[in-house]
Amino acid sequence: MKPNWNTKNINIRENSFLKLVDKIDKSNNKPTRYKGTIETMLLEFFGKTSKKKYIWKRATFKRLLIHAYKQKCYGLLRDYKSVEVLHNISSFGNQMVRNIESWERKGFDKEEQLRSLIRHSFAIYETPVFLENTFFEFDKKFMLWYLQLGKGKSVKDLSQMPIHLTNKMAHEFKNAPNIFKPNEALRFAQALGFGASIKTAKVIGFSKLSNINENEEKFWETVVLFFAKETNVNAKDLDKILEFLMYKYRENKKFSMKNRTQRALIFQALEWEKNVYKAEIGEILNWKTSGITPLNLEKNENGEKVVYKTIELLNSIALFDEGNAMHHCVADYDKDCKEGVSTIFSLQRVSENKLTERLATIEVGLRKKKL
Prior knowledge:
Residues 1-11 have low confidence and may be disordered. By secondary structure, the protein is an alpha+beta fold.
């Protein structure tokens, strides 16, 4: 009688799982997709593991399944993502520093069981959690970094290291926050090594600069160095500047960061973005005012005179600027405004020193005069 492998069933029948693992391991596996049962899940993962090439990987995967079962990690063995982590571990089955069978389960949380198993299998020395996290993903290069650091290898000597690291950068990489992915941690560490504050280094780490190519060109190191020296870097402006720099560097490999300022780069990036927008939309639409009287309200706030006002936006570019500042898609409303379906106002606050702050974007439906 065929065992029932219902993943919702709390108790795995004794020995049935072990028999199934042995049976699938010995069979000639064909590509199989997971269909919600333990059997199809095992068929899929064994099907990805050759019986002729890298046979230690298949043997390790089988050992991991058997030992996890004997340690009563039943929740782990029912979970597709957890078994996928076991499969990732088995990819390095020929580089383990301890026997699988000497690992003992502590606790019932399946993620903690997996993390404990990863550390047991590969780490003699303390290794960053953000690299431990890579076993829950897919990039084998970063899993290999975990193994290498776990055996005591230097950060600077890690395989396929894409950027040059100083000793300080290597130290900061190893101690980077757990929230980072490996490439983000590299940029964070590089920025710190160039003298950035923790806050600025985090912004740089989470930015598009973390998209690091294998053989990165020197230019991007100069970009990190440039922003590491800035005291006021925000994520929104940085990503706009980086898009602009990517375009300029593709256009001209001699493009340099020398004699530039962050303020000028923001302006240039916004102008470039506006020109790209113009090219995309083709015709720039203009329309007449709706005739609605704009707001102009003066108030005294903490001894300072401020003005609240609405400005009616009367062309495609004005809508683009508003959407760009407020992070929404009001630029898509230009045809509605041209056809007299809607009109758009920008609600702004102007302080006594003429500092303007955009507060809200207001759409008025002109047929019913409704906000």
